[in-house]
Design goal:
Keywords: Signal. It holds the Pfam family GHL13. GO terms for molecular function: hydrolase activity, acting on carbon-nitrogen (but not peptide) bonds. This is Poly-beta-1,6-N-acetyl-D-glucosamine N-deacetylase PgaB. The protein is an alpha/beta fold and 667 residues long. The chain contains 21 helices and 31 strands. Strands 1, 4, 5, 6, 9, 16, 18 and 31 form an eight-stranded mixed β-sheet that branches. Strands 19-20-23-24-25-26-27-30 form an eight-stranded parallel barrel, surrounded by four helices. Helix 18 links the parallel strand 26 and strand 27. Helix 18 packs parallel to helix 19 and helix 19 runs parallel beside helix 20. It starts with a helix and ends in an 8-residue tail after the last strand.
């Protein structure tokens, strides 16, 4: 009986839960990414690398693809369909193979000819330049040159019309030290660190440009055709590398960002699914059918790097390990991670936790902790950054009160975004954040407000004028945060496409929308501009007499203004008026209250991991996404069917699609 009930619950979850990938539509296609293929019957002692797949497994994939009516297409067919020449067949897919292993010629190419399946083969140029009797540097290993295809094989496959040759860079398929602590990150998107310091932006761009140009020249010289596709090593790219690849003649870029590709989408970035030996046929069905699923909710912890930092490096390492273990065991999705230093707790940045052009660096810490959280704890990391609240000292232009001509007492000290010099500083800081660190999103701090006595507009005190000015200032600040986002995306790994944004908003703006004129903030405007509107749902900070009732009303009012999927509640885990932690049971009850009202994305601030406050054992049942069952996918059967990579870099944070995506994790 319990088994039947559990089965019914899973089916119900499938009916009501969203999927990560939308259902397949006409004129779309899915790209699969393979690496090395082995035949263990012939080479039983061969060392296997990540993403290595057995020949028998690949044949099962190919048979399953045919049986279920999927139709592999060439990239030229995709381009012809985009140009309106010939539409794509239904259930179109594209096969791609990275790195240029000899096994592609020996094992895959015969299968492509047998099945008449086209494919894209991505080559690392420098590996092909190695002499026959020499070894190829492959991550931390050395492999014989014979492990990779040679030019006669490449030319033969290209001439067949089944295989398109793409660039996988000339010599950028490796990891660079990305910080003083030694974290290794993809060379294409990383400012390399050495004892002499960090690589400059100019040197970085010159290195990447030279690499792409060399790859394009080599492939043109050896095959007679210049490549038009850049397949990013480890799936790592940014807006700058996209532009450099276009300049080198490769306007199309294959990533490891998962998702279906649609012909009507702008841009030339192609999403792919990374497969490995453990990718089941059931998972393949989910991928190709557009039915992949991931938790539709965000559960987050807001972390102060000020709590992690310690002048003693050994203690700081202990702090990092303690934080990582805690976050990994929580079963959450996201960490909002402080990227600035605020020793006096006034909310104004006096230093930063990453290299930059304008402010002191308290410690080069953000990139290290963010990368470890992403790769070891498996969470998304948002860089928590002020919009304007940076203390640059005297001789800088700050937001001033029109009554005094000076910064308002009791408010954040904020650089003026309409002063050209201050604006340039703020944009530079965000650009440096993207250049030196790796993160998934931006959380804009609550400092982005302007009172009715602040701003660049003439002061009028009529109610109508104040309301109009509040709306104009709201738009001004939103537009500026979008400029900051674009600055961060210029060098950020993943570029602008996947860069998520969240912005804090005071609870007063939820319950009293007319307060916009005093803050230049608006729930409705935020809902249109950002991926998430993060309401500071902190009852004791707002002096609520009955916190439970206050939160329930706030949830109802918030959901009336912002869609649930774009709303985040940040609860307080500390009562700053009494300087005491919120009892764990009370915080857990708050989470239950807001969930009962329909708020599914939530977290808390601050996290005192030193004192285990709050206690994950108490919160986990109502907080962890791992307590939510994954949905049962109903089988999809077509009408016709009814009768390698360097593991130390972890594919730039993109794991292979392996195993059963329906697996329900146990606590």
């Amino acid at each position: 009986m319990r088994r039947k009930l559990a089965h019914l619950i899973l089916i119900f979850c499938w009916l009501v839960s969203p999927f990560a990938g939308a259902a397949r539509q006409p004129d779309d296609y899915v790209v699969l990414c393979y690496h090395d293929i082995v035949d263990l019957k012939l080479t039983p002692n061969l060392k296997l690398y990540p993403q290595t797949i057995r020949r028998d497994t690949l044949i099962r994939h190919f048979n399953w693809i045919r049986l279920h009516g999927y139709q592999p297409v060439s990239f030229q067919q995709v381009l012809d369909a985009r140009a309106g020449k010939v539409p794509l067949p239904d259930k179109a897919i594209l096969l791609s193979f990275d790195d240029g292993y000899e096994s592609f010629y020996r094992l895959v190419y015969p299968l492509l000819k047998l099945y008449r399946y086209p494919a894209v083969l991505a080559l690392v140029g420098s590996w092909l330049e190695v002499a026959d009797d020499q070894m190829v540097s492959y991550g931390n290993d050395k492999l014989p040159r014979s492990y990779f295809v040679n030019w006669p094989q490449i030319r033969e496959m290209q001439a067949s019309g089944l295989v398109e040759i793409a660039s996988h860079s000339f010599a950028s398929h490796y990891g660079l030290p990305a910080n003083p602590q030694g974290n290794v990150q993809p060379a294409v998107t990383t400012a390399g660190w050495s004892q002499a310091g960090y690589e400059s932006m100019a040197a970085y761009q010159a290195r990447v440009k030279a690499d792409f140009d060399a790859s394009a020249r080599q492939l043109k010289r050896q095959t007679g055709q210049a490549p038009r596709i850049m397949v990013w090593p480890y799936g790592a790219f940014n807006e700058t590398t996209l532009a450099l690849a276009r300049e080198a003649g490769m306007p199309f870029a294959f990533t490891l960002t998962e998702g279906i590709n649609r012909l009507d989408e702008s841009g030339n970035t192609v999403r792919r699914y990374l497969l490995d030996e453990d990718t089941s046929l059931e998972t393949l069905d989910e991928i190709l059918g557009g039915n992949t699923w991931e938790s539709p909710v965000e559960r987050l912890v807001h972390v102060d790097l000020d709590y992690v930092y310690d002048p003693d490096p050994r203690q700081m390492n202990k702090n990092i390990d303690m934080l990582l273990d805690r976050i990994k065991g929580y079963g959450i999705t996201t960490v909002y991670l402080q990227a600035y230093a605020d020793d006096n707790g006034d909310g104004v940045a006096e230093a930063l936790y990453f290299p930059n052009r304008h402010m002191p660096v308290k410690a080069d810490l953000f990139n290290r902790v963010a990368w470890q959280l992403k790769t070891r704890a498996g969470v998304k990391v948002y860089a928590w950054m002020p919009v304007m609240a940076y203390d640059m000292g005297p001789n800088h232009a700050y937001v001033t009160d029109s009554r005094t001509g000076k910064p308002a007492r009791g408010q954040y000290l904020r650089l003026s975004p309409w002063d050209p010099a201050s604006r340039r500083i703020l944009l530079d800081i965000y650009e440096d954040l993207g250049f030196y660190t790796k993160f998934d999103g931006l959380l804009f701090h609550d400092d982005a407000f302007l009172s009715d006595y602040e701003g660049p507009f003439p002061l009028e005190r009529t109610p109508e004028a104040l309301q109009a000015q509040g709306e104009r200032k709201t738009d001004l600040l939103i537009d500026f945060t979008m400029e900051l986002r674009d600055a961060a995306a210029r060098y950020r790994q993943g570029g602008a496409d996947g860069l998520k944004t969240a912005r804090n908003i005071y609870a007063t703006l939820v319950t009293e929308p007319e307060s916009q004129q005093w803050f230049a903030q608006s729930m409705a405007a935020f809902a249109k501009a950002y991926d998430y509107t993060a309401v500071m749902a902190m009852p004791y900070m707002e002096q609520a007499k009955n916190p439970d009732e206050w939160l329930a009303r706030l949830a109802e009012d918030s959901l009336a203004q912002v869609p649930a999927e774009r709303l985040v509640f940040e609860l307080q885990s500390r009562n700053w008026r009494t300087e005491q932690p919120i009892p764990d049971a009370e915080l857990a009850r708050w989470m239950q209250i807001i969930q009962s009202k329909g708020v599914n994305n939530f977290g808390y601030y601050p996290d005192d991991f030193h004192n285990n406050q709050p206690d994950p054992a108490v919160l986990r049942p109502v907080f962890s996404v791992q307590t939510r069952p994954r949905p049962m996918l109903l089988p999809q059967v077509s009408a016709s069917a009814k009768g390698g990579a360097d593991a130390s870099i972890e594919s730039a944070g993109q794991p292979a699609v392996s195993g059963n995506r329906r697996e329900v994790k146990d606590e």
